Amino acid sequence: MLARLTDAEVPESRQSPSDRLSLWLGWTDAIALSTALSRAPASAPAGARPDEGAGAQESARVRASLEQAIAGPKPTVANRQRGDLRAPPQDKRKAAEYAEYATYRQRYVSLQQTMEMSIGTLRIRLRAMLAATTPEMTQLAVLDAVMEQGLSARERSLLAGVPKLLEGHFTRLREAEQAALTASADGDAAERPLPVAPGTWLEVFRKDMQTVLHAELDIRFQPIEGLLAALRDC
What we know:
The protein is mainly α and 234 residues long. The chain contains eleven helices and no strands.
């Protein structure tokens, strides 16, 4: 998706997934991973088995909350004054004229932080539920914690580059619309309609940014899906 939006050439890696993953792990991570894999599973604490349905419900609630945050608040008069793209059509052109990418970068980074905190907390809770089942699942929960600790810094670093990539897309859309409108103005505007409605580029960008955020949410939620699958198999 990012390659399509940025026109970037992304050659397929010649390394296997395991080789690429090994580059993300330092020697301390390797020791922790080896220990988690080789240590005999501890006995699960006595007590009632966790309700897998509760884990699924909590995960669905967290995901719905994050999807709502990506969609943004419902339009209000104040939002429209700040350039909300769901403002009436007559306001969209003015909003596009004064749009600055810094506003969208800040929003993207804020949503990334929200996703990281919410999903991280959920992941800890699901591991606790998993560890309360069987010794084998306790070992799996420990393994997941080690993997999170070892990979999170690299994942955070890579995803932090997404807002910069989107800045180029923001600029290209704005320049493309301006070029189209200028070309139309240079011709016989009385006989030809405008090629695009002024300000449309910003609405296109906003939708593209939301699509990328949803894709990032899918990536960040993969460990959650794995833990839920393990709970279902208990």
